[in-house]
From TrEMBL:
Belongs to the binding-protein-dependent transport system permease family. GO terms for biological process: transmembrane transport. Residues 78-267 form the ABC transmembrane type-1 domain. The lineage of its organism: Bacteria, Thermotogati, Thermotogota, Thermotogae, Kosmotogales. Keywords: Cell membrane, Membrane, Sugar transport, Transmembrane, Transmembrane helix, Transport. It is a multi-pass membrane protein. It is found in: Cell membrane. Gene3D superfamilies: MetI-like. InterPro entries: MetI-like (IPR000515), MetI-like_sf (IPR035906). The chain crosses the membrane at residues 9-39, 78-101, 113-134, 146-167, 188-209, 248-272. This is ABC-type sugar transport system, permease component. Pfam families: BPD_transp_1.
Length: 283
């Protein structure tokens, strides 16, 4: 008995040691980013790195907002990222839920084949279709516009997969009762399916928003003016300029991280319960 308890204690210690080490590895870059944003460049480049700033150098945040050229284009780039990520998240959640509902609850010939073909698109890397998409965008004359930034990402296969896996175990009795009460299919979707799919919706919304917030390749192709660029492009431009202010660059990264953090904290209770949907729900 004592041997079993001793082995269990050792296992618990090893697990906790591993979790603490993993947390340190994950949090170290975040702590570095935040502390460096409050230091002048000369302190950031010191070895060993001073993890606690001597003085809070708030000028870095002002420099990040105004830019090295003093154009104050960063707030506009933040707005662009909010518009693109917000619209894409809303459309992805709504259209993926609608498609997933149809694939989960409406038996029709070829349903599994349609689902398989949708899943097959997940195997195609974006880099393989990036140039064809750009050619289509230029032929439609939607480059350097919000439509060009948003249109290719209105829905994705992962969102359909996630919503279908969640809804496939949704009780059919509830849907049938709503039909008996005279509700139409779209009314059932809006009033019953969506409100009861909060974990899946929150998970999909967070993942989609983060993906678009961090999207670099497509805006790099489609956005030609500084006014239409997004946050990742601004940070890349800031980092590649001849006289780079490392502290201001870290301040820009901190500002860019805040919306994602706020979104996660706001939806965390749904996200935690919905993050394992694809493994816990079988379709």
């Amino acid at each position: 008995m004592k041997t079993i308890k001793k082995q269990s204690f050792i296992v618990d210690v090893l697990i906790w040691a591993f979790l603490i080490l993993t947390a340190i590895v994950i949090l170290a870059p975040i702590v570095f980013m935040f502390t460096a944003s409050l230091m002048p460049s000369r302190d950031i480049l010191k070895m060993p790195y001073p993890w606690i700033p001597k003085d809070l150098y708030w000028q870095n945040y002002w420099q990040a907002l105004r830019g090295n050229d003093g154009s104050f284009i960063f707030p506009r780039n933040i707005l662009n990222s909010f518009i693109v990520a917000g619209v894409v998240s809303i459309s992805t959640v709504f259209l993926s839920a609608l498609t997933g509902y149809g694939l989960a609850k409406f038996p029709f010939r070829g349903r599994n084949l349609v689902f398989l073909l949708i899943m097959a698109t997940m195997m195609i890397p974006f880099e393989a279709i990036m140039i064809p998409l750009y050619l289509v965008a230029t032929s439609l004359k939607i480059q350097n516009s919000y439509i060009g930034l948003i249109l290719p990402f209105l829905m994705n296969a992962f969102g359909i997969f996630l919503m279908r896996q969640y809804l496939i175990t949704f009780p059919d009795e509830i849907i049938d009762a709503a039909r008996i009460d005279g509700s139409g299919e779209f009314s059932i979707f809006l009033r019953i399916i969506l409100p009861n799919s909060a974990p899946a919706i929150a998970t999909l919304a967070i993942l989609t928003f983060r993906t678009q917030w961090d999207n670099l390749l497509w805006p790099l192709l489609i956005s030609q003016s500084e006014e239409m660029k997004t946050i990742p492009l601004y940070i890349v431009k800031f980092a590649t300029e001849k006289h780079t202010n490392e502290g201001a660059m870290m301040a820009a990264a901190v500002i860019a991280s805040i919306p994602i953090l706020v979104l996660f904290l706001a939806l965390s209770r749904y996200f935690v319960s919905g993050a394992s949907l694809h493994s816990s729900r079988k379709g």
